[in-house]
Amino acid sequence: MDSKRNRWQRVRIEFEYVSSNFQQHGHDPHQCDLIVCWEHDWKDCPLEVLELRTVINDLEG
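The structure assignment produced for this chain is given below.
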């Protein structure tokens, strides 16, 4: 949500099993805002990454 304009923002998301697959599959980082993956293994990733296994682990407490 864009708090200044009080409206939604478009987010371009790529889903991968491991974050490094984004690069291996030849995706353009300029065409993506967020990588959602199970395991974040791409050390120098230029994009924001949401690692689901960490989120799930945090939910389990």
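Interim note for the steering committee: The first helix runs from residue 20 to 24. Helices lie at 20-24, 52-60.
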